[in-house]
Write a structure and sequence with these properties.
Largest interface: A-B, 23 and 23 residues
Radius of gyration of chain B: 14 Å
Radius of gyration of chain A: 14 Å
Number of helices of chain B: 0
Largest sheet of chain B: 6 strands, mixed
Oligomer: heterodimer
Helix content of chain A: under 10%
């Protein structure tokens, strides 16, 4: 079975520029997550989708970050404008969780390493 | 909000020594998951614990969930160089969104 796909793998931009990341989850996985992982820390959830609806975006800096999951399959995460502190790895994950069944294991993609200069 | 703390932050061992990492939550958890992230890689699911006092084993790895469901541990017996990586616990405290909160992880290095 194919894993979670992400692109690009690496991105370098200057502050105040915009950037977009793409994620294609494992086929059939209803739940999709975007995490930010700063060096030396654990993944921090930015946004969680169930199909194409947002379940949790409480930690998403909505003044500069946006995400969508049209048609409930692949997803894009955008940062506009970027700040130096946005330098991190952005991980996409998906899981099979059926609503009401509880948490299931998450499958992570390889991530996009963003450097903001 | 919920906080998940892990200790130690780093652990260096000689190959063959044992290793333990501890995870503590500020709130009672409905379940806890453990992930391993190799250097330069992405987190990979190891196991999920749900029941109070639960103990699960995977070969040389032993996972425990505390009686109060606020702490957990991962113990590796006789470490090998293939065990190198960062081990994260991630807790879910219930509620309606099944959100996982990750700890900062424990980086394990193994000297051959």
């Amino acid at each position: 079975e194919a894993g979670v796909a992400q692109s690009p793998r690496y991105k370098i931009i200057e502050k105040r520029q915009s950037v977009a990341f793409w994620c294609n989850p494992i086929s059939g996985h209803a739940t999709l997550y975007w995490y930010q992982q700063i060096l030396g820390q654990g993944p921090k959830l930015l946004i969680q989708f169930q199909n194409n609806g947002v379940v949790d975006d409480s930690q998403l800096p909505k003044d500069r970050f946006s995400a969508e999951r049209l048609k409930g399959v692949d997803s894009t995460l955008k940062i506009q404008p970027a700040k130096l502190e946005d330098s991190a790895v952005y991980l996409c994950a998906s899981s099979l969780v059926s609503w009401g069944a509880g948490v299931e294991e998450q499958y992570f993609g390889p991530g996009t390493r963003l450097t903001v200069t | 909000g919920q906080q998940v703390m892990q200790i130690p932050q780093y652990q260096h061992v000689q190959e063959g020594e044992d290793f333990t990492t501890y995870c503590n939550s500020s709130t009672t958890l409905s379940n806890i998951q453990w992930y391993k992230q190799r250097p330069g890689g992405h987190p990979v699911f190891l196991i999920q614990l749900v029941k109070s006092g639960e103990v699960k084993k995977q070969k040389r790895l032993t996972f425990q969930f505390g009686e109060a469901k606020k702490n957990s541990s991962l113990h590796i017996t006789a470490t090998q160089t293939t065990d190198v990586g960062t081990y994260f616990c991630a807790g879910e405290s219930g509620g309606s969104n099944y959100k996982l909160t990750f700890g900062k992880g424990t980086l394990l290095t193994v000297n051959p």
